[in-house]
């Protein structure tokens, strides 16, 4: 993409329009943005609502003569046109850094944006251990959380004896299924099969003697913080891993709602169902109905939606204002529901994968409409009170949710 940058902000062609920013990890190549489809849908939704959507990378955030500026692109007549503009009042964080250098550049850009009054649409979530601990404090959600412990190599043998079906390892700060692994004892004992995906998202499988399991696991994790859970039976009849992804967002009124639902199915024999690992997606209700029957599927999907909305509110209460959440659920063959994790930067490929064009447009519209709400309110940096005590009313609402019993025996991680 050839960009000739103007020396000042491009004249507003539709005078008086506000600006909404989208911060991406790196500048576009070949005329396309990272997440080009999402950026175009946000630009279209913004145009309909009277906003100019500006997409920019960390390299484009600068300070000049006491002003904060972004050098970015806006969509015009189907193409991305360069412009230089003041920092937008609200920006949507879509960074997925691939290196420490990209991580550092993004952190620098965020500092400049905040220094000049720009607020993020929502905050990031901390590591999975902290999120797990926060959700477990809610009595309605605690039974849905798999028993979870901090990874300790020397404890694996004992945990395998307690959970002979196997164990599941995942990075405490991972995404897209990278670095996950399933540990399964082979029949007859003495050998443990480890299958998973590397941090580069490459599939691997190996067999190790039980007495070398700790060393093999240490080599796999490479000193990174990991969590360990029982290996749940979350597979199709064809031995494909699958999960239920619910995409929940705030709308223009600031209320949480479910925008989309899909079942993500991984490749046979693998451990992760993420689309980045080669998985596919299907509409949730038909898949669950084929698995459980119509009534049970509808009941389970309703339970998952209620849990996802409650989890979003509880995460926001603990960690600060959020705008959207991807809530991932596991479902065992008997219909047992597990809340596996939350993702504050959920991908939107599931909408295109299942052909839900209306849901994809609604997701973009809700992003923009919530941004407009923050602009009207002055976009405070944090929209939630943090880890303060629940009010009696909210505590009662939390306690009146799902009450399924959990037989957790693993040591819980602490925040």
From TrEMBL:
Tagged with keyword Nucleotide-binding: yes
Domain of life according to the entry: Bacteria
SUPFAM superfamilies: Glutathione synthetase ATP-binding domain-like
Record-annotated membrane-spanning stretches: none
Residue span, ATP-grasp domain: 134-376
Keyword Nuclease: no
Family annotation (Pfam families): ATPgrasp_YheCD
Keywords: ATP-binding, Nucleotide-binding
Record protein name field: Endospore coat-associated protein yheC
Naturally occurring in which organism (per UniProt): Thermobacillus xylanilyticus
């Amino acid at each position: 993409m050839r960009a000739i940058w103007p020396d000042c902000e491009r004249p507003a062609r539709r005078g008086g329009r506000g600006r909404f920013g989208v911060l991406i990890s790196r500048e576009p190549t070949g005329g396309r943005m990272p997440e080009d489809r999402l950026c175009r849908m946000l630009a279209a939704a913004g145009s309909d609502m009277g906003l100019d959507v500006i997409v920019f990378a960390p390299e484009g955030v600068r300070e000049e003569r006491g002003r904060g500026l972004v050098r970015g692109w806006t969509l015009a007549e189907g193409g991305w046109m360069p412009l230089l503009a003041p920092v937008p009042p609200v920006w949507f964080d879509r960074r997925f850094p691939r290196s420490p250098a990209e991580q550092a550049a993004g952190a620098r850009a965020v500092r400049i944006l905040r220094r000049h009054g720009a607020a993020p649409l929502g905050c990031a979530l901390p590591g999975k251990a902290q999120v797990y601990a926060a959700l477990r404090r809610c009595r309605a959600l605690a039974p849905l959380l798999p028993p979870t412990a901090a990874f300790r190599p020397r404890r694996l043998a004992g945990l395998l004896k307690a959970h002979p079906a196997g164990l599941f390892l995942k990075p405490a700060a991972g995404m897209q299924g990278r670095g996950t692994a399933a540990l399964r004892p082979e029949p007859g004992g003495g050998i443990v099969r480890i299958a998973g995906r590397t941090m580069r998202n490459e599939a691997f499988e190996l067999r190790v003697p039980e007495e070398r399991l700790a060393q093999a696991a240490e080599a796999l994790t490479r000193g990174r913080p990991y969590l360990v859970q029982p290996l749940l039976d979350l597979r199709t009849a064809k031995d494909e891993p699958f999960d239920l992804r619910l995409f929940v967002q705030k709308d223009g009124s600031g209320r949480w709602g479910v925008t989309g639902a899909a079942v993500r199915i991984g490749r046979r024999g693998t451990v992760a169902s993420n689309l980045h690992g080669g998985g596919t997606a299907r509409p949730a209700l038909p898949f669950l109905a084929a698995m459980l029957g119509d009534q049970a599927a509808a009941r389970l999907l309703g339970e998952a939606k209620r849990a996802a909305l409650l989890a979003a509110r509880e995460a926001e209460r603990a960690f600060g204002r959020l705008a959207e959440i991807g809530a991932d659920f596991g479902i065992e063959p008997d219909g047992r529901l597990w809340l596996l994790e939350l993702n504050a930067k959920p991908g939107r490929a599931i909408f295109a994968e299942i052909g839900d064009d209306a849901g994809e447009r609604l997701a973009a519209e809700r992003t923009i409409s919530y941004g407009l709400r923050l602009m009207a309110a002055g976009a405070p940096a944090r929209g939630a009170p943090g880890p303060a005590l629940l009010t009696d009313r909210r505590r009662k609402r939390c306690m009146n949710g799902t009450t399924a019993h959990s037989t957790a025996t693993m040591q819980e991680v602490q925040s």
